Amino acid sequence: MKPGNGTQISGFLLLGLSEEPELQPLLFGLFLSMYLVTVLGNLLIILAVSSDSRLHTPMYFFLCNLSLADICFTSTTVPKMLVNIQTQSKAITYAGCITQMYFYIHFAALDDFILTVMAYDRHVAICHPLHYIVIMNPRFCGRLVLVSWIMSVLNSLIESLMVLDLPFCSDLEIPHFFCELKQVVQLACSDTFLNDMVMYFSAGLLGGCPLAGILYSYSKIVSSICAISSAQGKYKAFSTCASHLSVVSLFYGTSLGVYLSSASTHSSQSSATASVMYTVVTPMLNPFIYSLRNRDIKGALERFLGR
Predict the structure, then answer these.
(1) Model confidence over 153-182: pLDDT tens digits?
(2) H-type helices in 128-230, by residue range?
(3) What's the number of CA atoms in the CB half-sphere (13 Å) around residue 70?
(4) Is the Cα dihedral 155, 156, 158, 163 positive or negative?
């Protein structure tokens, strides 16, 4: 590497979750297993929904996009970690680090937006069932997903381009298993006030607004369910959004856990370990939540696998 006082550097060092040699085979096997389960589980959801015409509805269209985003999200971090463990190397090129950071931010935001869109879909289905087909028409659903992609692309592009202007000095070690934005910015040997402001503003805007939208949608859903007279009707209405509610709770619960962990311990290593829940475990559990709690998905999977 060529550290200097400018931006002419060849790469960074990813310290990973542990530097203990005896733990590396265990970490490799564990993360390889979780990655394969994540890709296979989400891919099965996409194939099952695509192959079953009965599931060609807005809810499952958004679910396919969520599964695709989860596959891409996990693929931005875990494969590089596995390669580094296998080759006993910690290096990642400068271009590779910026690229990984860009796609990580992009797919994390995309997950957030799609979960919000899915909450709105459930809101329309339960609160306005007679107008559901008219409101959630294919063109409108496509526009919602397109807007989600555009907003996540613009956000990740802005934050990644701002990192390109930062000069890096001699300390090029990232105490993480991937190029996390905050960790990379902290290595800069210049004032990062603007980067920090954009980072926190983006996190507040892209995290707070979707969460507010989800909470608003579910407040309306709860009001509509309470107005249903029969217990069977209430159960049926709630069951249509139970899987999504579980995924949202897992998504925001792990994200909040990572934030509180890093804020309380001030340890980069502890923060890296906690982030595994958000970056690896959550995308792996999403297809299980939808397949185990959803009869339509289970039926579609059985028919698809039966072929």
Answers:
(1) 999 999 999 999 899 887 789 988 999 999
(2) 132-135, 138-164, 181-185, 193-226
(3) 33
(4) positive
